[in-house]
Design goal:
This protein is 25% helix and 19% strand. It has 471 residues and is an alpha/beta fold. Strand 18 and strand 19 form a beta hairpin. Helix 5 packs parallel to helix 7.
């Protein structure tokens, strides 16, 4: 039985590289996600949730730092690789307000920030990506040191050089999604029914490549039957420097339709396996008796192209790179609702604080959208979104149009402008920038870009300096 005096729990689930359009209930007829569909029915799906972009090729690092600190990308330290003590994390704020704070899975934002954020944890992966079947993890360390290393030879067929891997243990043969779900269920059972509420942050490594999963999930998808997206391209449209980033080497270039279909099938299979594991966790939450007193947040850290616009990865600000799933369910949240408000992921931190009566730290940049959760009241606070990538790309979108400005170098051949009518062309296939008819719209949106640039203190950041000297 739920303690009526107990504060509301939070179960915060974040996945790795999961694009916005990868949930069956939200419009993808090819993908199989019965458990995420169930969560959508229980809550509100924010169908236009975005990341702000990335400040490095490993987008997950700044993206998760934004989620955890509530700060914009130019207000992060070390591109998000560290969250300094003056930037309060969501975990430490909940801890200071009487919660058991539990951290599991991927943490790409520095050991000190993890240590001060959580009172419990398990299977902590301090890194960016790994083989899903042999993830090196740390046990929770109450001292906060996290200084153990294990020697590991990465490719013993080619060399004998050991890598000092930051971990306590490997779990060979157990997929990362299962490994983390098992640990989360164990800690859920330990904390359920107690007077003290819990905040659980569960960060999966899937569906990030290498895209491997149990065969039963791979067999659910036939690559030959997969539909190519309308914006599939064999090559990208610019001379973008990051076209050589590691993600882009996962398939032959120029892209072949058959190879991209195989990648999409494996991407969907990873998500369906992940969905199955999340289903086990949601079942455990229900069985624990805590479901009715728990807000569940489900989201992804960034999108993924998988062949769209000639890209495989997420080094861009097209819709496939910056739009992510966001579903919230639980007490005080409207059921089976779709909300089209523009929100950033770094708005979740202040939203949870406001919803649960916790003071929002001054270090937070995000804007609460708690007024939208009941499905009946409130309006979106954002009329447009500013989007950035590294020192090369800036953009802005309103409800109808999206402007993307590439500045890859100092020469005119390195400067590209794209304007899309995203209301009528959601796949961003028809560039309107060369049309005289849209000259004023481009001018208007460029002015918006500069307004947001100044709001975000971008020109105090090296990447901002580099971009704007080319503009």
């Amino acid at each position: 039985m739920i303690n009526a005096m107990k504060k509301t729990n939070v179960l915060f689930i974040i996945t790795d590289d999961q694009r916005f359009d990868t949930i069956h209930a939200l419009g993808n007829d090819e993908i199989i996600t019965p458990n995420l569909d169930r969560l959508v029915e229980r809550g509100t799906a924010f169908t236009r949730a975005h990341i702000a972009g990335g400040t490095c090729g490993a987008v997950c690092m700044p993206s998760r730092a934004m989620v955890l600190s509530g700060r914009n990308p130019f207000h992060l330290e070390e591109l998000g690789g560290n969250i300094p003590s003056q930037h309060k994390t969501i975990g430490e704020v909940f801890k200071a307000n009487g919660y058991e704070t539990i951290g599991l899975g991927k943490w790409h934002n520095g050991c000190p920030a993890y240590a001060r954020s959580f009172t419990q944890g398990a299977k902590i992966f301090f890194g960016g990506m790994w083989d899903h079947w042999n993830v090196p993890t740390c046990r929770y360390d109450p001292t906060g040191e996290y200084d153990n290393v294990i020697n590991f030879v990465v490719d013993f067929f080619k060399d004998n050089e050991p890598l000092a891997q930051h971990c306590d243990e490997f779990s060979p043969g157990k997929h990362s999604s299962t490994l983390l779900t098992d640990a989360a269920i164990d800690l859920l059972k330990e904390n359920a029914g107690k007077d003290k509420p819990f905040f659980m942050y569960l960060a999966y490594l899937a569906p990030h490549d290498p895209r491997t999963m149990p065969d039963s999930f791979r067999e659910m998808y036939d690559p030959e039957k997969i539909k190519l997206p309308p914006n599939f391209q064999e090559v990208i449209d610019t001379n973008y420097p990051l076209m050589v980033h590691r993600d882009e080497h996962l398939a032959a270039y120029p892209r072949k339709e058959s190879e991209i279909k195989k990648h999409i099938a494996e991407y969907f299979a990873m998500i369906t396996h992940l969905d199955s594991e999340i289903g086990r966790l949601l079942d455990a939450l229900r069985e624990s008796g805590e479901e009715e007193n728990t807000i569940v947040v489900f989201t992804g850290d960034n999108g993924l192209a998988v062949g769209q616009h000639g890209w495989l990865g997420k080094e861009d600000i097209y819709e496939h790179g910056v739009r992510v799933p966001l579903v919230m369910a639980g007490p005080g949240i409207a059921e089976n609702k779709r909300n089209e408000a523009y929100v950033y992921l770094y708005d979740i931190f202040p939203t949870l604080c406001e919803k649960l009566g916790i003071e929002i730290p001054e270090s937070v940049d995000g804007q609460s959208f708690a007024q939208l959760l009941d499905g009946e009241h409130g309006e979106s606070q954002r009329d447009e979104l500013y989007l950035i990538f590294d020192e090369f790309v800036r953009g802005v979108k309103d409800n109808n149009y999206k402007l993307i400005e590439y500045r890859n170098g100092d020469n005119e051949d390195d400067k590209w402008t794209f304007l899309y009518d995203i209301k009528n062309d959601p796949w961003e296939t028809n560039n309107l920038a060369a049309s005289e008819e849209y000259k004023n719209k481009i001018k208007e949106l460029r002015e918006k870009i500069m307004e947001h640039r100044d709001e975000w203190d971008e020109q105090a950041h090296p990447w901002g300096v580099n971009f704007w000297k080319r503009f």
